[in-house]
Amino acid sequence: MAQTETRTRPPFRQRVGRRQAFLNKHLTGEAFDYRQLTSLYIPLLIDQAFIIGLNLLNTAMISSSGVEAISAVNMVDSVNLFLISIFVALATGGTVIVAQYKGSGNTAMVPKAAASSISSVSLFALVIAILMMAFHNPVMNLLFGSADPEVMELGRTYLLGSCASFFGIAIVEAVCGALRGIGKSKASLTLSLIMNLAYVLLNLLFVQLLDMGVLGMTISVNVARYLGAVCAIVFLVRIDTELRVRIKNIFLMKWGMVRRIMTIGIPFAAEQMFFNGGKIVTQTFIVGMGTYAIATNAISNSFAGALQIPSSALSLALVTVVGQCIGGRNIQDARKFTRSFLWISAGFFVVTTAIVLPLFFPIVKGLFHAPDAIMDDLLTLFLINAIAQIPLWSMSFMIPSALRAAGDSKFTSIVSLLSMWLFRIVLGYILGIRLDYGIIGIWLAMNIEWGVRGAIFFWRYRGTKWYKKRII
To answer: Which listed residue, 318, 339, 373, 385, has the most CB atoms within 10 A of its CB?
Structure first.
């Protein structure tokens, strides 16, 4: 019997050898080997898991304050996402420039790029915050005027508090972006965990224990984000030995460097503005469907984010990997790693869906306190989105990360803009409003838009234009 087992099952060393050969073939090149990729990816995975998992907990905590509270937070978060994504996009420009300087071996320019990224991103966020706080009433009335009065009042409180925190989170995002650019994802993870864990713990205090609802959440988000900003600056000037950023360099704007960062950041920021602006339009569709539809959308977004955790981390890692490959003019590795990441991402979606599906009802009832009236829609949205994500999400979101890291940011921005407004908005209106499919129609339109956009990005990736533009 032992001899039969030996013949049918390869020896341990042989199995290890095959695994090693597979990893070398698909995840090893001149710029990175699979061990380096693993070291880069794991902290990003933990970071994304904590961010999305903690956001899920925050959504669950605010849901205990009532349907009106969760509706107000979800409604305003569409605006927050729109605004924060602008300076996160600028921070991504900093990540790309830092990564390309790192890959080219020009270490003297790395700290200059990091300092310019921090100064430009934080200043931009401060301007946005001041403008939004000054005009929060007209914005709320314009976008969500059809919401119930109680939801509107809670929404105003949450919007003001969120805007006050923008400067803090901008500093954290810019510093983390620079750290990811040089491959220091562990340090980026530490800063992110400090900020997000503080947010959850403070929500436990203010929202759960003191029952302060939306007001408590606004206090929590400000304290947590400015704590994260202080820790990020202290890390740069007191602990870090590679970026070597100095406080005075942050205040001395290097316009040549800022221009390079903006070459990547501004098209991406414009893309995010129009992309998330489109999400706000769809949010207005949902607001018109009633408070239950808003709550359904909020809970469904939490589930979608949970399924995307591993792939979102891969997308972040891909910016660093492709950026350094392009900086070293290693096109073959850039293509190889992008292709491998796409397949790995699709596999992750299969695994996460298989894990979450059996837990769906316990989570919906126990964590989100969802009313019975929305249970059918929640399950339908989960199944549609989970199936669509497997083939479509990676092409739609990961390939543009690779293209952007190579400097092809204008193309990705134009495609994302057009696909959002021509497909997600128009088709969402037709399916959700005109054909009366409601919230399910809105989500179907989103999944279809992923497919269209992903097909275009894949066609671009198969060509040669995306890596020919030099930015450093």
So the answer is: 318
Q: How far apart are the C-alpha atoms of 184 and 191, rounded to whole Å? A: 11
Query: What is the mean pLDDT of the segment spanning 228-234?
Result: 91
- Quote the tokens at residue 375: 């249970």
Print burial letters for 362-399: b (CB count within 10 Å at least 16), e (below 16).
ebbeebbebeeebeebbeebbebbbebbbebbbbbbbb
User: Is a pLDDT exceeding 80 seen at residue 463?
Assistant: yes
Both ends of the chain: CA-CA distance in Å? 64
Rounded distance between C-alpha atoms, residue 30 and residue 458, angstroms: 24
Contact 207, 220 (CB under 8 A): yes
Between 31-35, 232-236, 277-281, 334-338, the lowest mean confidence (pLDDT) is in 277-281
CA dihedral 262, 116, 321, 352 (to 10 degrees): -80
Q: Which tens digit of pLDDT belongs to each residue from 102-147?
A: 877 777 777 788 888 888 888 889 998 999 999 888 888 887 777 7
CA dist list (Å): 4 to 15, 17, 295: 17, 21, 59
Torsion over CA: 183, 171, 89, 352 (sign): positive
Residues 6+ apart with CB under 8 A from 316: 44, 48, 180, 401
Which residues lie below 8 Å from residue 331, measured CB to CB, with a gap of 6+? Answer: 325, 467
Residues 400 and 416 sit within 8 Å (Cβ to Cβ)? yes
How far is residue 129's CA from residue 85's CA, in Å, rounded to a whole number? 13
Question: Helix H segments across 290-437?
Answer: 291-307, 309-327, 331-356, 360-366, 375-405, 409-419, 426-428
CA-CA distance, 258 to 256, in Å (whole number)? 5
Query: What's the pTM?
Result: 0.72
Written as six digits, the tokens of 41 are 């990816």
- C-alpha distances out from residue 117 to 174, 254, 407, Å: 6, 10, 16
- pLDDT grade, residue 5 (50/70/90)? very low
Q: Which residue has the higher pLDDT, 55 or 125?
A: 125
What integer is the mean pLDDT of 368-385? 85
Q: Under a CB-based contact definition with an 8 Å cutoff, are residues 237 and 246 in contact?
A: yes
